[in-house]
Specification:
Helix content is 49%, strand content 6%. The chain is mainly alpha-helical. It has a two-stranded parallel sheet. The chain has 7 helices and 2 strands. Helix 2 crosses helix 3, helix 4 runs parallel beside helix 6 and helix 6 runs parallel beside helix 7. The protein is globular.
Amino acid sequence: MSIDNALLKQKQSNQEYQYQVGGSLLPGNPTYIKRQADIDLYKALKQGDFCYIFNARQMGKSSLRVQIISQLKAEGVVCCSVDVTEFISRDFTEEQWYLSIIYRINEELSLINKKELFAWWKELSELSAVQRFNEFIKTILLETIVNQNIVIFLDEIDSILNLNFNPDNFFAAIRYLYNQRADYPS
């Protein structure tokens, strides 16, 4: 039995068609289907809205992130993507977890060298880990990248529920930092 799909055959004649199972599709991948979510997320991020995408596993959330990052970067928006599963371990202390998130953001955006980052972290050791996270965003990230919009994507955020400490402070910190934009618009 043969099933014809004219659109698929047309795409195959122009380029090699490779179906991918699992994982994020690269920007421009011919198998990526643009959805209303792409348009809505892009518009909301361009407006500076707080955004989140919830859906079941393997529904294209990570591929959506990859496509949107590609679009935003092409327009000069600074983007950082953190896959939270990289830092999920029952052995992580709260302090180690926050430092790991900060470390990843710092590495991806090339803000300060590692030695400076660890010295900065130790210098603020009297503050809680979540306070240091807030300070990192305010005094390193936002003072290093000026006059540009910044979008930080947190992929697989549901995995945070597997930590051995309560993640509520992390979500409160995100809300706090987002709300600070009204008081400090620059």
